[in-house]
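Field reference: "sequence" (input) and "structure" (output). Example, Lipocalin-like domain-containing protein:
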Amino acid sequence: MLAYVASYRIEGNRVIHEVDGSWNPNWQGALERPFTLENNRLVISGAPGTDPTTGEEVVYRMEFTRD
C-alpha cells in the first residue's frame, strides 16, 4: 500500500512530486521518478529497494489507465 499527497511537475521523462504528506515519512520532500506515457497508460517507476516481506530487490511501479 502507498498513500501520499503532493503537487508535481514534469521535467523531461521524469515527474517530480513535492510531497506534503505521506504514510511513509521517508517520502517527505521531493521525489523524482521516471515515467512513461503511452496512449492511455501512465507508468511511474519507483526507486530500487528491498521488499519488506520477502527481502528481494524490487522496483515498484504505479500504472494508471485513462478510459
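The longest strand covers residues 29-38.
The CA atoms of residues 8 and 22 lie 14 Å apart.
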